[in-house]
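Sequence in, structure out. First:
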Amino acid sequence: MINKIYVNSEIGRLKKVLLHRPGKEIENLMPEYLERLLFDDIPYLEIAQKEHDAFAEILKNNGVEVVYLENLASEAIINEEVKDKLINEFLKEAGIQNSHRFDSLKEFFKSFNNNKDMILKMAEGIRKKEIKDYDKRNLTDYLEDDYPFLIDPMPNLYFTRDPFASIGSGISLHKMLTETRNRETLFAKFIFNYHPDYKNTPFWYSRKDEFSLEGGDILILNNETIAVGISQRTHPIAIEKFADNILNEESKFKRVLAFDIPKHRSFMHLDTVFTMVDYDKFTIHPNIQGNIIVFSITKKDGKLEIDKEKGILEDILKKYLNLDNVDLIKCGGKSVIDAAREQWNDGSNTLAIAPGEVVVYSRNYVTNKILQDYGIKTHIMPSSELSRGRGGPRCMSMPLIREDI
């Protein structure tokens, strides 16, 4: 059987990747509700789409098959029963409690003849004025009279790294920290339960688990070692459960390294401060170069064993990856100002498409030059609008298949 998911490293040549082209959900961002929707700014959609298309073109030109979340999700709707299930779960998780409104919105979604259009509309969100018979039904409606949406948009959906993660020949389907993003994982749930190509994929984590785990915190360092960030958005108990599930003979992984990183937005996920670009080279935020606490999680006789280690990041990586030398490439180089500016625009967040070959944002020109000086081949993509979402090329991509290294 050909594995539809096969990812055993961060840097093996990328063969297939999942993206989501930003859609009208971006145009439903409003300044007064940015914090609610986890945005700091509002991208201009037309330019963001052109930038995203350029990103996809770079990948295609380098032998990568690009598939889109909205296509796979619509292909997973194999019959009317599955469509009903998706609509019901979506409306429930969107907080639609009034039975009349639930039925009205369900009828609205079922009216779409094209399933892809329905998926895109779910992502876009629903303004109150779009529903013809909208009227106030309960106390909550009156209290939220000024709020313009019946269902919130999903503007973070173009960061496909987070809702699930491809690991080995399976996936971890995530419980996201925020309600805003947790609805995104519904699409992955239906893909991996119903899509003809993906329905038999093993799960290493479930979106119904109690504690949050997000894909930006998961890095596959090699075919035995996975790094996971204990971050603002990934809970340590989730990491233990994930480790207990994945450290088995089926997955072949032997160790999970849990990195304790600062718990605030500029260090949102591990991959915003640390990505792998070659066998022995990593981009880093300068603030994590010093001492860092790492927990090595292994499994013996069916029980997890946890060892705490505090040391220099370089030494920890050399130890667990069996390397004689490690190069840590600082975002922004030696300049505090350049580092802060380019870190804000995800200068440390690179997507490796092969060993020593990465996709990067054009605006991080200081870091890009340093990468080139280290012998890293950089594919530079436009980034004026996509970067406003606070995520880089790695954040915007979920590898489905990589070659072994």
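Second:
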Amino acid sequence: MKIPAELRYSSDHEWVTPGSSTVRVGITDYAQDALGDVVYVDLPTLGATVAAGASLGEVESTKSVSEIYAPVAGTVSAINEALSTSPDLINSDPYGEGWICEITLGEGVSLDGLLDARAYGELTNN
């Protein structure tokens, strides 16, 4: 399993790009592997305000349906429209073209509560 060192991770298997007031969010390689072939993604609503830990949408695979949780609080500022027609991007490129949304962080929100790559690797036994 790939666990890029530059990203931060939630215990619910979402990843976040650190470094600015707007972060990109997706599900990890571990999560997409556990799901199997992704066939549909219910994307969050553009402009929606989300709380950390709240549901952003769902990923449906040939095996199951799984919630996508907001790893941080803020406003959904972009969604990956490509997933509407190519949900399999989550399987083929979970850290690149398979991103789900971008969230502009709420005031005072930081990434301090998220896991680094080492801690996420320990969580997933990788």
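Remark: The radius of gyration is 13 Å.
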